[in-house]
Design a protein that fits this description.
The chain is built from 6 helices and 5 strands. It is α/β, with parallel strands linked by helices. It has a 5-stranded parallel beta sheet, with helices on one face. The longest helix is centred in the N-terminal third of the chain and has 21 residues. The relative contact order is 0.13.
């Protein structure tokens, strides 16, 4: 396990830096980003990817199924000058209506591999996207031997086991739960 996986604030800052340095400049060529922009991050965890958007005055929403990660995000943002433009939701995206909101931009960085039934998901999230909205999707190199986040496993066995992430979803989750 790397230090960035143990230190959530470090990981939060790393996410923010990567989004600031690479994601926003890429998106600048595709859309205007500013106070009128409404951004949704699906699978936001501590919501580090939302920080640069919030700093630009965007209205931001983060959703994650892990309430513990959402609570950490709330802690990281508690003193932010634009926190009134941040909505953090602990909910399964498949169970959420996101308060009826639609967004100019939906961001998912290194999350799609955690979403069950990805074909359904990609059709499902269209309802959250404005007609002229953009969807930014980035994913880790899953087909390499250790593309399944084994580096964060506490288990010495699973952290060295290539491709266990390619098991059927229920089996994969069951195995992870055994070792957490």
């Amino acid at each position: 396990m790397q230090e960035r996986h143990k230190n959530k604030e470090c990981y939060f800052r790393e996410q923010a830096q990567t989004t600031q340095k690479y994601v926003i400049p890429y998106l600048d060529d595709l859309m205007s980003i500013g106070p009128e922009t409404e951004v949704l991050e699906i699978g936001c965890a501590e919501a580090g990817n939302l920080l640069p958007f919030l700093n630009l005055g965007c209205k931001t929403t983060g959703i994650d199924i892990s309430c513990g990660r959402i609570e950490l995000a709330r802690k990281f943002y508690k003193n932010h000058s634009q926190k009134q433009n941040l909505d953090l939701i602990c909910e399964d995206i498949y169970q959420s209506d996101l308060h009826g909101k639609t967004f100019n931009l939906i961001v998912m960085r290194d999350v799609i591999e955690h979403i069950p039934d990805q074909k359904r998901f990609l059709k499902y999230i269209k309802k959250f996207l404005k007609s002229d909205g953009k969807f930014f999707l980035a994913f880790p190199p899953w087909q390499n031997p250790f593309g399944g986040h084994q580096q964060i496993c506490q288990s010495k066995l699973l952290s060295k086991t290539p491709w266990f992430h390619l098991l059927p979803w229920p089996v994969y989750r069951f195995i992870l739960n055994l070792f957490e």
